[in-house]
Amino acid sequence: MAYQFLVRRSFHLGAALACAAGLSWAAEMAVPEKLDLSGLVNQHGQPFQAADSMTTVMLVSGMKMKGMVRDALEELNVDCLREGRVVYLANISGMPKLISKMVAVPKLRNLDYPVWLDYSGDTATTLPANKGEVTLLSIASPGQVSVVSFVSSPEALLERLLPECGARAPAEN
Predict the structure, then answer these.
(1) Contact present, 43 and 114 (Cβ < 8 Å)
(2) In angstroms, what CA-CA distances link 2 with 5, 95, 150?
(3) What span, in angstroms and rounded, lies between the C-alpha atoms of 60 and 33?
(4) 48, 36 contact by CB (below 8 A)
(5) At what angle do helices 154-165 and 63-73 cross, to 10 degrees?
(6) Predicted structure pTM score
(7) How would DSSP label each residue in 117-166?
(8) Which of 15, 68, 120, 170 is most buried as measured by Cβ atoms within 10 A of its Cβ?
(9) What is the largest CA-CA distance in the chain?
(10) 18-50, pLDDT tens digit by residue?
(11) Residues 27, 18: contact at Cβ < 8 Å?
(12) Which residues, in sequence order, are CB contacts of 163 under 8 Å at separation 6+?
């Protein structure tokens, strides 16, 4: 209960500050009591199984944000994604099915970390989101969201994920 209160209080405070600053804010929504990603599959069609290890969920919607995340992840050790501590959740529900099937998902298969795909939007649309920002959900215990935050630059995302992932080792020549 204390975590839920903290999340709702932080989310409402963020909404108030964004409105006061004249920023665009997504329709206010409550954070789900328990985040369930069990219906998702990654770009290889594998079902989600990292519920017990996840500490951060990154919700990405839109091509601009996908590029920003890609840029930040180039600097990070992506073992945090492979091990499921950080979960990359991509909302592709607005993408035409033919494009996702023939272009987007095949490109994602070249990545060396999982991207969890929400084809229907049933999961992603229950989470708070702002246009032009990546939503970061801190997970306190399996499925329990403790903090919601938003980042809008690769530098801010890198700063937020670096303690969880560590820096990528320099490439050997």
Answers:
(1) yes
(2) 5, 37, 21
(3) 20
(4) no
(5) 50
(6) 0.80
(7) EESSSTTGGGS---TTSEEEEEEEETTEEEEEEEE-SHHHHHHHHHHHH-
(8) 68
(9) 52
(10) 443 344 444 455 787 789 999 999 999 999 998
(11) no
(12) none
